[in-house]
Design brief:
Elements: H1 31-34, E1 38-41, E2 68-69, E3 77-97, E4 109-115, E5 120-122, E6 127-129, E7 137-156, E8 164-171, E9 187-190, E10 217-218, E11 226-246, E12 258-264, E13 269-271, E14 276-278, E15 286-305, E16 313-320, E17 341-344, E18 350-351, E19 354-360, E20 366-373, E21 385-392, E22 399-405, E23 412-421, E24 433-442, E25 464-468, E26 476-477, E27 485-486, E28 502-503, E29 513-516, E30 520-527, E31 542-548, E32 563-569, E33 576-584, H2 586-589, E34 595-602, E35 611-618, E36 624-630, E37 644-650, E38 654-659, E39 662-668, E40 677-685, E41 699-710
Parallel strand pairs: 18-24, 26-27, 28-31
Antiparallel strand pairs: 1-3, 2-8, 3-7, 3-8, 4-5, 4-7, 6-7, 9-11, 10-16, 11-15, 11-16, 12-13, 12-15, 14-15, 17-19, 19-22, 20-21, 20-23, 23-24, 25-41, 29-30, 30-31, 30-41, 31-40, 32-37, 32-41, 33-34, 33-40, 34-35, 35-36, 37-38, 38-39
Length: 711
C-alpha cells in the first residue's frame, strides 16, 4: 500500500441520482400510453437502446443502464420520434435528460415537432422548464395542443458532446393533474430545516438517497419532537396519494417513528381519512406510499414524528390524484443479463421489521436469498450461520421478490446475499451464476456479539493500551490535530493518499464517516459528483475513507511488541480495497528514512472469500516484501457476509497474524517492526484492480465494531 500506484478507473457515470420510480415525476405516467407507440431515432449509440425512452424507467446512472444517446453520432443534430400509429392529441412532453459530463451532455437546445401529414412542424408556443436544457433531471415542455400521429424531439448537440435521454413521455394535460399525475408546482416550507439542506428540493423531481448529489430536506438538530413539510399549491387541488421518499443516513437522520398526511380545511389542519401506508412502517432509503380518501385543498403537509435519538428526512414528496394504477416495478429488459440487480431497498439503506427485497435477474431461473444469522436452537455454533431464508424463480422478465424478517437478524450491518443460477432448483448443470451483496443497516433486530470482548489468548500478559468501540462521536481531522485520528496517511504534513479513491475529510461535504446506532463506525466509498476536481490532480472519481491512530506530527497511539485487533465487516465489489494495517511511528516522529509495514488484513472485493496479509520494509536493510494470501481465508462466512476479527501480534522474534483468533501466518520480526507501530483502518479502492461498483449504485460500506491495542 505504501508505494503502489493503482489502476485508474474509467470515468463512466458522474451523476449518481437514481430515480427509479416513474410515478414520482410529472407526466411520466403518460409513458404507459407511449408504451404502445413505436420509437425510432436518427442515430443510436450501439450500447444504448432507443426503446428504453418509453419503458417508464428513469436512470441517470450506469446501473441500470437505461437510455438513448447519440454518442459518436456524426450529426450536429439528432432526433427521437414517437409514432402512435393513429391520431393522438398532445400538449406536453417530459424529458429525463441524461448527461455523464463527458461525451454525453445536455443538448445546447431542443425542439418539439409533430408530423402535419406532409412535413415536420415545430409545436407552437413551447414553454420549457428549466429554460435551458439541463442534465440529470426532468425537463418539461408545454405547447399548443395538436393532434398528430407522430411527434419527435430534435436535439442540437452541445459543443464537443452528444445528447441523451433516459425517458420521453408525451401527455395531453388539460387539468394540470390528470389521472396518476402529481399536481404540478407548489411552494414548499417546513417547520424546521437543517442549515445544509433545502426544503425546496422535496419537489424538484430529483431522488437521491446518497450524499452525491445532496438533495434533501432533513430536520437534523431540530429541537422539536415532530416536524412537518408543507406543499402549498395556491389553488384548490385534489389528491388521494402521497409519495414520500424517506432519507435515512443511519445516524442522526433516520426514518420517522410515524408520519401523518394532513390537508388544510380552510381553518385548521386535518388528517387525511382512511390512510393506507406501504410499507406499513416508515422505511428509509425507499418510496413510502400513502393512499387516502380524495380531498380538495390548497395545502397539504406531512407531519413526521421523529424516531428516538434521531430526526427525519425526505428527498422527495409528490402528491397525486389518481387510481394508483400501474406498477411501481420497472419493466424488464433494462438490466444486465445473468446479474442480480436489486431495485429496493436501496443499497446501504436502513431497514427494520418486514422488508420486501425486489430485484431483476434476467436469464436466471433460481435465486436464493441468504443472510448471516446469530446462533439459535437449530444452529448453536458460537459464530452464527449462513441462513438461506427464501428461494424464488424470477418471472419471464427476470423480476422477483423475497421477504426478509429483519427483526430475526442481528442489529447493525446486515448483508443479504442473493445467489442466482441459470438452471432450475435441483439442477446442478448451470452455466451462469451470480452473487449480489445487498448491504443494509438493521436498526432493529437482535443484539449479538456487539462491543469489546474479553482479551484473547494471544494478548495474554499484556495490558490494554488503547481501545475504541465507537459508542460516541468520532474524533478525527485531516492531520489529526485536535483529534484522536487523522483522516489521511500521516507521512506528509497534510497527510497523503493512495489508490483510486480520495480520502475525504470528516469536516467536508463528502464525509465518509458515520457512527450508526451509537455502536458501529461506517466508512463509505462513493462516486464523486459531476464536475468534482481531484485536489491532487490524479483524476480520481471516487471517495473513500481512512483513519490513522498517528497524527501527521508523529504523536498518537503506537505500541512496541503489541497485539492489534479490530472487528470489521468489509464490502464486496470489484475494486474495493479495505485494510487494517500497521506502520512504524519513527518514520514520522524521528524522520527515519525506512518504513516498516505490517498488513494485518488486506482484502480485495472481487473475491470476498479471500484475505491477504503482508510485510514490507520499505528502504529497509535489507528491503523486503512478502505477501501471504488465502483464496478461502475464513473458517465461516466471508469478509462481506459477517463480522470477522483481524489481529497481529508482534514479538521480539515473530510476527503472527490471526483471523477470528486462529493463526493464519507468521514470520520473523524484522528490525524496524520492533519499534512502536501505529494502526490504520481504511476503505480504499483500486490496489491494482479496476473499480466497477455500478451494480451497487457506486456505493459500498465498511463497518468497524471496535479496534484495540495491547502492549
Amino acid at each position: 500500500m505504501y508505494k503502489r500506484k493503482a489502476l485508474r478507473g474509467r470515468l463512466t457515470a458522474l451523476l449518481t441520482v437514481f430515480a427509479l420510480l416513474a410515478s414520482l415525476l410529472p407526466a411520466m405516467s403518460a409513458s404507459a400510453t407511449d408504451s404502445g407507440a413505436t420509437v425510432t431515432a436518427s442515430y443510436t449509440f450501439f450500447m444504448d437502446d432507443v426503446n428504453q425512452v418509453k419503458d417508464g424507467t428513469i436512470s441517470y446512472a450506469d446501473s441500470p443502464h437505461n437510455r438513448w444517446t447519440a454518442y459518436q453520432s456524426p450529426n450536429a443534430t439528432d432526433w427521437v420520434q414517437t409514432d402512435y400509429g393513429t391520431a393522438t392529441t398532445r400538449n406536453k412532453v417530459s424529458l429525463a435528460i441524461y448527461s455523464d459530463g463527458g461525451g454525453v451532455k445536455a443538448p445546447s437546445s431542443y425542439d418539439v415537432q409533430y408530423w402535419n401529414g406532409s412535413a415536420w412542424t415545430s409545436a407552437a408556443n413551447q414553454s420549457k422548464s428549466p429554460a435551458a436544457p439541463t442534465g440529470g433531471q426532468l425537463n418539461t415542455v408545454t405547447f399548443g395542443s395538436v393532434t398528430a400521429t407522430k411527434y419527435r424531439i430534435v436535439f442540437t448537440h452541445a459543443s464537443g458532446a452528444k445528447s441523451g435521454v433516459s425517458e420521453i413521455a408525451y401527455d395531453n394535460d388539460t387539468s394540470g393533474g390528470g389521472t396518476g399525475n402529481p399536481p404540478t408546482g407548489g411552494t414548499t416550507s417546513a417547520s424546521y430545516t437543517f442549515g445544509q439542506d433545502s426544503v425546496a428540493q422535496v419537489n424538484d423531481g430529483i431522488v437521491s438517497f446518497t450524499d452525491t448529489p445532496r438533495n434533501r430536506w432533513t430536520a437534523y438538530q431540530s429541537p422539536n419532537a415532530s416536524d412537518w413539510v408543507q406543499t402549498d399549491f395556491g389553488a384548490s387541488t385534489t389528491a388521494n396519494t402521497a409519495k414520500i421518499y424517506v432519507y435515512d443516513d443511519g445516524g442522526g437522520v433516520k426514518a420517522p417513528a410515524s408520519y401523518d398526511v394532513q390537508y388544510w380545511n380552510g381553518s385548521a389542519w386535518a388528517s387525511a381519512a382512511s390512510q393506507v401506508k406501504s410499507p406499513a412502517a416508515p422505511t428509509g432509503g425507499q418510496l413510502n406510499t400513502v393512499t387516502f380518501t380524495p380531498v380538495a385543498a390548497t395545502k397539504f403537509r406531512v407531519v413526521f414524528t421523529h424516531a428516538s435519538g434521531a430526526k427525519s428526512g425526505v428527498t422527495e414528496i409528490a402528491y397525486e390524484n389518481g387510481s394508483g394504477g400501474g406498477t411501481t416495478n420497472p419493466p424488464g429488459g433494462s438490466y444486465p443479463q445473468y446479474q442480480v440487480s436489486v431495485i429496493s431497498p436501496s443499497y446501504g439503506g436502513t431497514v427494520n421489521g418486514t422488508v420486501t427485497i425486489k430485484f431483476y435477474a434476467p436469464g436466471m431461473q433460481n435465486v436464493w436469498a441468504r443472510a448471516w444469522h446469530q446462533p439459535d436452537a437449530s444452529n448453536g455454533g458460537a459464530n452464527g450461520y449462513d441462513k438461506w431464508f427464501q428461494r424464488v424463480t424470477p418471472d419471464a422478465n427476470g423480476y422477483g421478490e423475497v421477504t426478509l424478517n429483519a427483526s430475526d437478524y442481528p442489529t447493525g450491518p446486515l448483508t443479504v446475499i442473493l445467489s442466482a443460477w441459470d438452471s432450475p432448483e435441483g439442477n446442478p448443470n448451470y452455466t451462469q451464476s451470480d452473487n449480489c451483496y445487498l448491504q443494509l443497516y438493521n436498526s432493529g433486530g437482535v443484539v449479538w456479539k456487539r462491543g469489546i470482548p474479553a482479551a484473547p489468548a494471544q494478548a495474554s500478559g499484556m495490558s490494554v493500551l488503547y481501545q475504541d468501540d465507537f459508542t460516541g462521536s468520532l474524533s478525527i481531522s485531516q492531520t489529526g490535530a485536535g483529534a484522536t485520528y487523522a483522516s489521511h496517511k500521516p507521512d506528509s504534513p497534510g497527510g497523503s493518499d493512495f489508490g483510486d479513491a480520495i480520502f475525504a475529510d470528516y469536516e467536508s461535504a463528502y464525509n465518509p464517516f458515520t457512527v450508526l446506532g451509537g455502536n458501529f463506525l461506517r466508512i463509505r466509498a462513493s462516486k464523486t459528483p459531476a464536475g468534482y476536481v481531484d485536489p491532487k490532480g490524479w483524476n480520481r472519481t471516487w471517495f473513500g475513507g481512512m483513519l490513522s491512530s498517528l497524527r501527521t506530527d508523529g504523536t498518537g497511539v503506537a505500541a512496541t511488541y503489541g497485539y492489534f485487533e479490530a472487528r470489521i465487516q468489509m464490502p464486496q465489489g470489484k475494486g474495493t480495497w479495505p485494510a487494517f494495517w500497521l506502520m512504524s511511528q519513527n518514520s514520522i516522529s524521528q524522520g527515519v528514512p525506512s518504513t516498516a509495514e505490517i498488513d494485518t488484513v488486506e482484502a480485495y472485493g472481487h473475491n470476498a472469500a479471500g484475505a491477504c496479509q503482508a510485510k514490507h520494509w520499505w528502504a529497509g536493510s535489507p528491503e523486503m516484501h512478502d505477501t501471504h494470501c488465502l483464496p478461502n481465508g475464513f473458517g465461516f462466512g466471508d469478509m462481506a457476509s459477517t463480522w470477522h476479527l483481524y489481529g497481529t501480534k508482534i514479538t521480539a522474534t515473530d510476527t503472527i497474524y490471526y483471523i477470528d483468533n486462529v493463526e493464519v501466518w507468521r514470520h520473523a520480526t524484522f528490525d524496524q517492526a520492533k519499534t512502536p507501530m501505529y494502526f490504520m483502518i481504511n476503505l480504499a479502492l483500486g490496489g491494482g484492480w479496476p473499480v466497477d461498483l455500478a451494480r451497487y449504485n457506486n456505493q459500498v460500506d465498511m463497518y468497524v465494531d471496535y479496534v484495540r491495542v495491547f502492549q
